[in-house]
Specification:
Blueprint: H1 20-29, H2 32-75, H3 78-86, H4 89-96, E1 103-107, H5 114-121, H6 134-142, E2 147-155, E3 159-166, E4 171-175, E5 178-182, E6 188-191, E7 202-204, H7 212-221, E8 229-235, E9 239-244, E10 247-250, H8 256-270, E11 277-281, E12 289-292, H9 294-312
Length: 313
């Protein structure tokens, strides 16, 4: 370009036949400083990347060794032992910060002991409020047959509140030598583990739990003898035998309440249950059959022999 701002040669072509665009292109490509700058940036980036790669590699190696160490710690069983003794790492951190579970308030407890509720909930000194899963705790509580409903909530910084509704135990059920606590509908809600349920009515035998309302109705029909009934055995899926102070009272399949009314009358008039007997059979409506104790039976046999000898002489 001359001093007047004009190109010294035509952009459309020259004497040698070179075109203008080719000439312009050649001039543009000749701007090496721009390409050199670009290359330098690339090289600078490569050097930084190399440094980062070396640093990342060191961290990766360290993390790999840490992972292997942790895996070995877990595989050896020492991690499980540590958690069993001290709790989960997150719970430990929360306890250090003052969020450990220090108090548990239980509402609605009636038949259960506090320690049983805590054990069922899985809450102890190793637990922490922030990392306690209240939904999981509730599910654990509902697995206890005696608990019908439960709710769990956190009270920061260090308290858990449990509200539960217990099923009402109605009787004890003995089957195959094992005692269970049952609700009014016969559902097994607990095992007989101590004497806290000892005062409940007792039913014995196959399907006796499902016949509990029928048994309780018979006890009510016994009137003055009700307090003396210790248990009821459901026999052959058809009828009841009641245990009264060591005396078995065999009731009929049909209208057992009427048979009990007869027993009440016999006891009032003759003191039947005070005799040396071990069983009263009321299955026949027109008679009462009694079974004597061994001693009474032997005494009665001797008396009959003596009577026969006296009659013979």
């Amino acid at each position: 370009m001359d001093g007047g701002g004009r190109f010294p040669e035509s952009l459309s072509g020259d004497a040698a036949g070179r075109s203008g665009p080719a000439r312009f292109a050649g001039a543009v490509m000749g701007r090496l400083p721009s390409r050199s700058l670009s290359v330098r940036r690339a090289r600078s980036g490569q050097r930084l990347g190399a440094r980062l790669s070396r640093g990342t590699g060191t961290v990766a190696v360290s993390m790999t060794f840490a992972a292997f160490a942790l895996a070995g710690f877990v595989a050896s069983g020492r991690y499980d032992s540590f958690v069993a003794e001290q709790g989960r790492p997150l719970d430990i951190a929360a306890r250090v910060l003052g969020f450990g579970v220090e108090r548990v308030t239980i509402s609605g407890i009636s038949r259960m002991y506090d320690r049983e509720v805590l054990a069922a909930a899985g809450i102890d000194w190793r637990s922490s409020v922030p990392f306690l899963d209240v939904g999981a705790v509730r599910e654990k509580l509902l697995r206890v047959p005696l608990i019908a409903q439960a709710s769990v909530r956190k009270i920061y910084p260090n308290e858990i509140a449990i509200t539960q509704v217990e099923r009402e135990p109605a009787a004890l059920w003995q089957k195959n030598g094992e005692l269970s606590v049952i609700a009014a509908d016969g559902t097994v809600i607990d095992a007989m583990r101590d004497d806290r349920y000892a005062s409940l009515p007792l039913v014995v035998g196959e399907e006796a739990n499902t016949k509990l309302p029928e048994y309780l109705a018979l006890v009510a029909a016994a009137g003055p003898l009700a307090d003396r009934i210790k248990a009821g055995t459901y026999v052959s899926g058809r009828r009841w035998t009641l245990k009264l102070d060591g005396v078995d009272v065999r009731l009929p399949e049909v209208d057992p309440a009427a048979a009990l009314a007869r027993l009440v009358r016999f006891e009032r008039e003759a003191g039947l249950l005070e005799k040396d007997i071990i069983a009263v059979d009321l299955r026949m409506s027109d008679r009462v059959v009694v079974r004597l104790t061994e001693e009474a039976a032997a005494t009665r046999a001797e008396a009959q022999k003596a009577k026969k000898k006296g009659a013979a002489s």
